[in-house]
Amino acid sequence: MKNVTDSFVSSGHWPSAGSFGFNTDILATNPINLSVVIGVLIFFGKGVLSDLLDNRKLRIVNTIRNSEELRGRAVEQLEKARARLRKVEAEADQFRANGYSEIERDKLNLIQSTYKTLEQLENYKNETIYFEQQRAINQVRQRVFQQALQGALGTLNNCLSNELHLRTINANIGMFGAMKEITD
């Protein structure tokens, strides 16, 4: 780690106290910055991310199980409705002369209400799954960002020794002094 900090502090990479400049070589600076950020994210975020994903997976699986149970109940209700339909059809044969059209309407209403109930349950299941997925994604994003930020701050704090910190401050004071003399 000492070699890394020495390479950043060496006089060849820092402008002299009398001048100020920017490194405009994008090809030299961006890949280094990106590789450092990606390395920090991978190093500090992989354990937390896998734990979060495992927990979310369990929650989603439980939600799917609950939805399947709801679907099973809906199928049971459908079977009961079909049994009632068969019963109504038997009664319709008996009372055909008196109220055939009324019974037929009741039958269609019963079928329609059952299908509507099934559609509502299926929609509820799909909405619940989508909501849980979105919530999981948002939580994972937030946790990864927090972990990456904490890891980067920890790495910076570990890399900055008192001597390096004082040398950086003195170099910046010298640059500001030179800038003030130029503007005066």
TrEMBL record:
Keywords (A to Z) from UniProt: ATP synthesis, CF(0), Chloroplast, Coiled coil, Hydrogen ion transport, Ion transport, Membrane, Plastid, Thylakoid, Transmembrane, Transmembrane helix, Transport
Does the record carry tRNA processing as a key word?
no
TM segment ranges: 32-49
Give the CC-aspect GO terms.
chloroplast thylakoid membrane; proton-transporting ATP synthase complex
InterPro entries assigned to the protein according to its UniProt record, in alphabetical order: ATP_synth_b/b'su_bac/chlpt
The lineage's top-level taxon is Eukaryota
Which Pfam families does the entry link to? ATP-synt_B (PF00430)
Q: Which residues form a coiled coil?
A: 64-98
**Protein localization:** Membrane; Plastid, Chloroplast thylakoid membrane
Additional note from the record: In plastids the F-type ATPase is also known as CF(1)CF(0).
Subunit relationships: F-type ATPases have 2 components, F(1) - the catalytic core - and F(0) - the membrane proton channel. F(1) has five subunits: alpha(3), beta(3), gamma(1), delta(1), epsilon(1). F(0) has four main subunits: a(1), b(1), b'(1) and c(10-14). The alpha and beta chains form an alternating ring which encloses part of the gamma chain. F(1) is attached to F(0) by a central stalk formed by the gamma and epsilon chains, while a peripheral stalk is formed by the delta, b and b' chains.
Its recorded name reads ATP synthase subunit b, chloroplastic
